[in-house]
Amino acid sequence: MSQARSTAAAAARKARKAGAGLESPLFMGSVAKCFQVLEALNAAGRAVALTELSAIAQMDRSAVQRITHTLHALGYLRQHPVTRAFTLSGRMLEFGHTVLATDRLRDKVTPHLDALNRKTGETVNLMELEGQEIVYVARFPSLHAVSVDLHVGSRLPAFCSAAGRAILAQLDEEAALAMLAAAKRTPMTKRTVTDLPGLRAVLAKVRELGYALNDQEAFVGDISIAAPLVNRAGEPVGAVNIAVPSPRWLLADVLRRLVPDLMKTARAINDELTDL
Fold first, then answer.
1. Residue 48 sits in which domain range?
2. What predicted TM-score, i.e. pTM, was given to this entire model?
């Protein structure tokens, strides 16, 4: 697994741990531990033996053993007959397929994102807000080498990503600031803005410009721009994003050459979002 993907996964897990609802009497710790193991396997991106998996998941070995036995018996994990290491099974794909197949926004925007990708030759993404994170729902990779290895399903903290800021800027300011205040704002790079006054100013700038710009705040060497997608009621439902490597792109060129195409695509998509 690449360092960028590992960092993103770790940041996402930390953000979820800070989420609301963990203190509710309805919260089931046993279910949470099961998903903690699944997330550890997913983050590893390879076959992992029990002892190492316990360390990655930061859980007691006996608890991980019971969970992996159950998941293996249900068909959600594979276990190597010799090494006894675990991997996620193909059955997990059923969940991902259902998520994508039932995402109406993804269906509507795919032709637009494909066209934007072909025109710019750069990575184009559709991202949606889930809690304090943004998730990659569709991804059209660059024709050139890229600095960040991410995929559909990858997550990033919303506070420091261009797509997250584009979406947050469309919320009521009080609601957006409350979400930011509750988030674990761990810096991803030396450039990451983490203080609330700074983030408030960032969101104000996004509202003024109509798009968000992220210059190496989420990943070193990555410049990202994003425009919000809103439904008929004016509610944000996602963001379209272009990401480029800074070694190949100057910031001024991103603003001059890519922002107009991004905004044109976002407007075309928003014109079609009448039933979401």
1. 3-93
2. 0.76
